Amino acid sequence: MIDKETALARCQDLVALAGRMGADAADAVARANASESVSMRLGQLEEVERSESEEIGLRVFVGKRSASINTSDFAEDGLKALAERAVQMAGHAPEDRHAGLAPEEALFTGELPELELDDPDQPSPEYLREAALATEDAARGVAGVTNSNGGSASASRAVVALATSTGFGRGYAGSGFSLSASVIAGEGGGMQTDYASRSARFRADLPSPEMVGSEAGRRAVARLNPVSMPSRKLPVVFEPRIAGGLVGHLLGAMSGPAIARKASFLLGHEDDELFDPAIRVVEEPLRKRGQRSRPFDGEGLACTNRTLVENGRIFGWLTNVASADQLGLGLTGHASRSGGGSPGVSASNVHMEPGSVSPEALMGDIEDGLYVTSLFGQGVNTVTGDYSRGATGFRIRKGEIAEPVAEITIAGNLLEMFRALTPADDLEMIRSINVPTLRIDGMTVAGE
After folding, report:
1. Is the pLDDT of residue 333 over 90?
2. Where are the domains positioned within the chain?
3. Which one of 41, 147, 167, 434 is at 20 to 30 Å from 444 when CA atoms are compared?
4. Does domain 4-221 have CATH number 1.10.1040.10?
5. Mean pLDDT along residues 18-44
6. Is the pLDDT of residue 340 over 80?
7. CA-CA distance, 93 to 67, in Å (whole number)?
8. Closest CA to 201 of 318, 287, 107
9. Could you name the domain of life of the organism this protein comes from (predicted)?
10. In whole angstroms, what is the distance from residue 237 CA to residue 239 CA?
């Protein structure tokens, strides 16, 4: 796999080639990935996978016309042909008066911050095999587990580089490690399955395989013999593993491109008090070892830690160059890039700050409610905020988690759900979006 210096050099070469071919402006992004994973099932080696990929994408502008194209051919002749083809394509594209590169004065300058993204301690295939086996063994060792979908361990490394014709040129590398297990509890038609997984930038930050595997086994066994429940409006409590999806819907609705398309349920509510004033949602792209940390965005702007929700209100919209121009707003450093195409928008390392009570106290006054541990279905309308998802979890009776439940649906509207949201104090910073246990009163639960 190429290193970040080589990736950056190729990007700079490609941008220069595009200029010589007639482009008025251009940027190039290169990505390289290498990963290795080992899967074990029922104590036997099931799969060993090793993959490497390298890709470079070029975006060119001829006036207000643009085109994007990408390739995995890093040879000089291949890059030259790519640049020539991109400029030709741009000449036939429709004009877009909002598209363009970030202005030179807005680009990141200075030294890259030390974010500790790249772990030099790369494990051997033997280590991955032992870790995968230990994870599955721990899951299968939980009483009530009857079968296994497998345990796995993986390690990966990635390189990203970006160069623009306005003078930006930087690159960085990052690593990733993960453990997971999925097992089955029960027999016949009463079988239930569940999983556990953990990921980290540094191998030393992963929990033990025994901890991950045991969690998978306990979760599967706890789901045995589910029942339905009556349909009514009830308090609903979301466990942290799935509660981050609610913040994900908020971030999607704060996207500048969505606002420009008038395809967001937050449109017209940017000055409203959407949450309880005590709730804060924070973004930390510069967090050390963060799973989505990055020093600069997909257009070369510096990423900045910021508060996204404070005093109940959002800070504004997450923008890239095109959406900022269309909306008449400033740039926020949220552009995201894949190997090809125009930049999108994404946030990095978002968390909701914890509340002041434990999950037990948060549920303590609920006479009848629902504790949700799994969601399925895509019933979220991003334009209206209407929310309807299939769910499984546990009944809450007199403040205590009781029997498992399944074959139910929960529904509401995200604007109303945000206003009714209360967080517990059990925040853990282990995902790209981290939230504590969340309680929302007055949701519709549809069961039997």
Report:
1. yes
2. 4-221, 225-245+354-446
3. 434
4. no
5. 97
6. no
7. 7
8. 287
9. Bacteria
10. 7
